[in-house]
């Protein structure tokens, strides 16, 4: 059932073009849709939600754990920038114990692949008790969290067997992007033109993902080169920040190698002290609004002897001179980059764990779903 792959994780990484298609296809306007329809993703589940009131007088609270929490963090950037809806992001395990301020009219979005994570379920229940409408984003149909919520959006990623989440994460990102476009249309923050452009980008994303997957062998070579490193840093800015956190989690969870993700701007507030010539630093330097500032962070790391593995956009001619290794991904809209940029980091973690001889699909001390609080 691994369909020729040596691990479920590899199979699930390679399933991502198809999984993203499954998440998005039912929601995207049909090709040839009239002018008005082409910027409107379909969310009949949310017809009754008062979106202008949500934006003006209430807020979204996202609740999740682990990888799903990283998706939630990306969701905050997406919702706030594309829809101008205010968002808080909480670790589900913290939420109930910090006397959160949630009011009727708020929307609580619980994100969970399995739909069985006890902390996320309990946090959703608490948010609903306080008066919020509960929306679940789940992969597993009819799971506990799906049943607990007022509304459910399924990612349709298909079964994820490997403990390390891969396609579940990128499909959550795709769903959150669709949702941000939907909300942005309803608040008026997004023009029809801009919304249609983002939806076209989502429609074309599987092809770009195939191109990234085509680089798996090159990424394995990079993994071999750095396999003896015991500390890794992952740096990203803006939407690449949650991707950096996720890249670091992937590596530590399956290879047991220490890795940390940071926002680029934070490194000089502490973590740069870790940098020397034994520390590979994965820098997410895709073209877009934060590109030049990211390069400045890259230079700071380089000046301290850090070894740079850069993730950059195809066509970037500067990066080759600045980095020890470069992984290029196709150019896509900056709001769609997180989905694409996650994949090389999954492959890097996968190959490093495999080279270490780790039990990739069943890492020690971990369970696929954490059903105790
Ligand atoms: O099923 P969930 O999305 O609620 O799971 C949350 C976390 O336990 C999960 O994402 C965990 O961090 C993964 N093992 C990460 O790969």
Automatic annotation (TrEMBL):
Keywords: Aminotransferase, Cytoplasm, Glutamine amidotransferase, Repeat, Transferase
GO molecular function, one term: glutamine-fructose-6-phosphate transaminase (isomerizing) activity
Main subcellular localisation: cytoplasm
The keyword Transferase is annotated on this UniProt entry: yes
Entry superkingdom: Bacteria
Primary enzyme class: transferase
GO BP, sorted A to Z: amino sugar biosynthetic process; carbohydrate metabolic process; fructose 6-phosphate metabolic process; protein N-linked glycosylation; UDP-N-acetylglucosamine metabolic process
Active site: 368 (for fru-6p isomerization activity)
Localization per Swiss-Prot or TrEMBL: Cytoplasm
GO cellular component: cytosol
Domain SIS: residue ranges: 50-189, 222-363
Keyword rRNA-binding in annotation: no
EC number: 2.6.1.16
Catalytically driven reaction(s): D-fructose 6-phosphate + L-glutamine = D-glucosamine 6-phosphate + L-glutamate
Subunit record text: Homodimer.
Function text: Catalyzes the first step in hexosamine metabolism, converting fructose-6P into glucosamine-6P using glutamine as a nitrogen source.
The name this protein goes by in its record: Glutamine--fructose-6-phosphate aminotransferase [isomerizing]
Name of the gene encoding the protein in the UniProt record: glmS
């Amino acid at each position: 059932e691994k369909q020729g792959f040596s691990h479920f994780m590899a199979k699930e990484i390679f399933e991502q073009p198809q999984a993203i298609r499954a998440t998005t296809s039912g929601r995207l306007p049909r090709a040839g849709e009239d002018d008005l329809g082409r910027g409107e993703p379909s969310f009949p589940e949310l017809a009754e939600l008062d979106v202008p009131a949500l934006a003006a007088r209430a807020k979204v609270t996202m609740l999740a754990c682990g990888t799903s929490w990283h998706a939630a963090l990306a969701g905050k950037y997406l919702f706030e920038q594309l829809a101008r809806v205010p968002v808080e992001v909480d670790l589900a395990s913290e939420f109930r114990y910090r006397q959160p301020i949630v009011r009727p009219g708020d929307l609580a979005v619980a994100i969970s692949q399995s739909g069985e994570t006890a902390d996320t379920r309990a946090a959703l229940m608490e948010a609903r008790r306080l008066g919020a409408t509960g929306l679940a984003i789940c992969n597993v149909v009819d799971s506990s969290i799906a049943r607990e919520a007022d509304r459910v959006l399924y990612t349709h990623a298909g079964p994820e067997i490997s403990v390390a989440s891969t396609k579940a994460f990128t499909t959550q990102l795709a769903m959150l992007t669709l949702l941000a476009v939907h909300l942005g249309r309803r608040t008026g923050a997004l023009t029809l033109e801009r919304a249609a452009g983002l939806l076209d980008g989502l429609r074309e994303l599987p092809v770009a993902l195939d191109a990234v997957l085509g680089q798996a062998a090159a990424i394995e070579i990079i993994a071999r080169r750095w396999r003896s490193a015991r500390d890794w840093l992952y740096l990203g800015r803006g939407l690449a920040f949650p991707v950096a956190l996720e890249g670091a989690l992937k590596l530590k969870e399956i290879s047991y190698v220490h890795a940390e993700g940071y926002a680029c701007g934070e490194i000089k507030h502490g973590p740069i002290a870790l940098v020397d010539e034994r520390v590979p630093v994965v820098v997410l330097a895709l073209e877009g609004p934060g590109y030049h500032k990211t390069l400045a962070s890259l230079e700071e790391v380089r000046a301290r002897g850090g070894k740079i593995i850069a993730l950059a956009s195809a066509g970037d001619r500067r990066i080759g001179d600045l980095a020890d290794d470069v992984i290029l991904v196709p150019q896509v809209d900056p709001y769609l980059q997180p989905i694409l940029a996650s994949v090389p980091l999954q492959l890097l973690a996968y190959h490093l764990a495999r080279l270490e001889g780790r039990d990739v699909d069943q890492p020690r001390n971990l369970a696929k779903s954490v059903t105790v609080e």
